[in-house]
Design brief:
With 306 residues, the chain is of the alpha/beta class. The protein is built from 9 helices and 13 strands. It binds zinc ion. Zinc ion binds next to loops.
Length: 306
């Protein structure tokens, strides 16, 4: 059996995991990222988490094949250099060299959404020619796998499907454009839509309480009309963006990740129905659309194994 370490460096936490060649996550460890402490501290913490995890699991570093690191940002995968990250103090830093020096192991680096997509693709059985993973989170993460390889453009900056326009002159996005898909279909967007509906409908059971990504779903289950309108509209926002993906790639499979995907089949089936009704393909086989299976661990497993 071969063993790998996967690392998911996020804006809030750094998570490291020991992964075997079958994609099983054997152990995991995480710590707050503390971005304010800067790049050197971040690299030191990442390396020490990898070493600690091995020690705790009774493995020597030389039993590990490699460390794979997923980072939110643009990565030059051939060298392991992070070019830019909007959440982390990493700009033109070769983190593969730094971590490799500290841990004396080969290190690969990739974008975190690509890592998550590869993790989902791998545990799904590596079998599809084309596979897309969409993560509905703070923003929308997207990873595209074509013929077993991550496709992210000639320069590594591609697959940013969350930053394709859904509504011209719509809500301003951090990327500088207006009306990006993620401003309407991310978890953050759902929470904002729920909060607006709660304020506009004081008699709704959503009003007055704490609002999160589940609020509208739970209220709609109890027959709350305003909540049902929020969910219907949100389903359409998600599905309209997915139709763009389907019409562009006609992938074998799309998986939907992020906390909201835990709503499971009742949510996914509504999205699927809408996509199948409006996508351009009328008579050929349809793209399989399902919830992701790994949730928060996809990035660690994908980074470890890619
Ligand atoms: Zn954008």
């Amino acid at each position: 059996m071969k063993y790998y370490i996967g690392v998911d460096i996020g804006g809030t936490n750094i998570a490291v995991g020991l992964v075997d060649e079958n994609g099983r996550l054997l152990a995991k460890k995480s710590e707050p990222t503390q971005v304010e402490r800067g790049c050197d501290a971040l690299m030191e913490k990442t390396a020490s988490l990898c070493v600690q995890l091995c020690k705790e699991q009774g493995k020597n570093l030389d039993e590990i094949q490699k460390i794979g690191i997923g980072v939110p940002g643009t990565v030059r995968c051939s060298t392991g250099e992070v070019m830019y990250s909007c959440n982390l103090p990493l700009e033109r830093v070769n983190i593969a060299d730094i971590i490799s020096d500290k841990c004396r192991l080969p290190v690969t680096v990739l974008n975190d959404a690509d890592a998550a997509a590869y993790g989902e693709y791998f545990v799904d059985g590596n079998k599809f020619e084309s596979f897309v993973c969409i993560t509905l989170g703070t923003g929308i993460g997207a990873g595209i796998i074509l013929n077993g390889r991550i496709y992210n453009g000639f320069n590594g900056a591609g697959a940013e499907i969350g930053h394709t326009t859904l509504i011209k002159d719509g809500i301003l996005c951090a990327c500088g454009r207006k009306g990006c898909w993620e401003k309407y279909a991310s978890a953050t967007a759902l929470i904002a839509q729920t909060a607006a509906a709660a304020e506009a409908n004081p008699n709704s059971i959503m009003a007055g309480g704490k609002i999160d990504g589940q609020t509208a779903f739970r209220a709609a289950e109890k027959g709350d009309k305003a909540a049902e309108r929020v969910i219907s509209e949100y389903v359409e926002y998600v599905a309209e963006g997915l139709i763009n993906v389907v019409n562009t790639f006609q992938p074998n499979k799309i998986v939907i990740g992020g906390g909201i995907s835990k709503e499971g089949e009742p949510f996914i089936s509504r999205i699927r129905e809408y996509v199948y009704r409006y996508d351009y393909n009328r008579y050929m086989d349809k793209t399989i659309i399902s919830a992701a299976s790994l949730f928060n661990d996809a990035g660690i497993i994908g980074a470890a194994l890619y």
